[in-house]
Amino acid sequence: MPVDTFEEIQPIMLAKEQPSFVRTPTIENTIKRALLYLQAGYPVNFSGPAGTGKTTLAMYTAAQLGQPSLLIHGEDEFGSADLVGGEFGYRKKKMVDNFIHSVLKTEEDVVSRWVDNRLTVACKHGFTLIYDEFTRSRPQANNVLLSVLEERVLDLPAARGVDGYLKVHPNFAAIFTSNPVEFSGVYRAQDALLDRMVTLKLDHYDRDTEIAITMAKSNVSMSEAEKIVDLVRGLRDEKKDGFTPTVRAAIILGKIVKLSGAKVSSADKGFVEYSLDILDSEINTSHEKTNGEIKKRILNVIKNIC
Ligand SMILES: Nc1ncnc2c1ncn2[C@@H]1O[C@H](COP(=O)(O)OP(=O)(O)OP(=O)(O)O)[C@@H](O)[C@H]1O
Ligand SMILES: [Mg+2]
Predict the structure, then answer these.
(1) DSSP-derived pairing of the beta strands 128-132 and 173-178
(2) Domain 7-83+117-201 belongs to what architecture?
(3) What would the pLDDT profile of 269-279 be if each residue is shown by its tens digit?
(4) pTM for this structure?
(5) 252-288 tens-digit pLDDT
(6) I want to staple 202 with a disulfide (CB 3.0 to 4.6 A). Which of 52, 80, 219, 261 is the partner?
(7) Relative to the CA of 179, which ligand 1 atom is closest?
(8) CA 29–ligand 2 middle distance (angstroms)
(9) 200 Cβ partners below 8 Å, 6+ apart?
(10) Nearest to 74, CA basis, from 215, 177, 198, 184
(11) What is the residue extent of each domain of the chain?
């Protein structure tokens, strides 16, 4: 039996000021545009290859809206219940008799209990929905978003027990992130959905931004960060064998340099070893020739840069 009391997923309040968030002119500009589109009532989709800052920018932009947020990660197994909500029903009841101490009764039963999921909660209260990697969910699971974004109405299953639809709160905002369709495990989003959002296409950050991020996240000095970033960018710019190390590799290498006390130099055996481990981890191949080739290229770039 449907019930009229709902449990709700609780939102989170993201801090507007995030000390480790780096704001360079490129980032400022991206955020300014995203906030403008959101203010005009359009959802924003940060789209780009791995490690281009999509999730970080989505969270930071959501924080700037100053209202509670709900986060969803897209995945293959998703159905619309994972967005809207569904019936969950298990209850355990323990009864202790205050008069007859030896009486303890435990009841377990299954009752239909509707639980609103994140999209419904965000639409109802006017929260911000951050839907990370939304194209990892099958397109059918995301169909429910079409009327939310266009007609500002959410269709709800009859099992929820009240009106069949919910009018979307005027403060509701949606921020998406997605990998380009060529990435494995990614579905092509339906055109109708893409048509209802503004997509900001991101690429790897510029050199200055990557240096600033590496310094902020690993605490290495400017000159160390410069060399580490040039190493990563040098390999990425070769665009060979699908080997595209990201700013993540620069952050990890920076943290290891800091922790181990290694010198950012081709003369430091430890640094060369760590660079090989970390940069080589970014490519997933057991092809011996490719592996050997990449190792050689990493060593070459290290020699040229530091
Ligand atoms: N503006 C920023 N300030 C500080 N750190 C940042 C910033 N942008 C990105 N980063 C850092 O760079 C790394 C990659 O960013 P992020 O995880 O957001 O990328 P992504 O595009 O979501 O990657 P993926 O597609 O793999 O999920 C993270 O470690 C993140 O903390
Ligand atoms: Mg991400």
Answers:
(1) parallel
(2) 3-Layer(aba) Sandwich (3.40)
(3) 999 999 999 99
(4) 0.89
(5) 999 999 999 999 999 999 999 999 999 987 666 666 6
(6) 52
(7) 25
(8) 20
(9) 30, 33, 34, 44, 45, 46, 47
(10) 177
(11) 7-83+117-201, 207-305
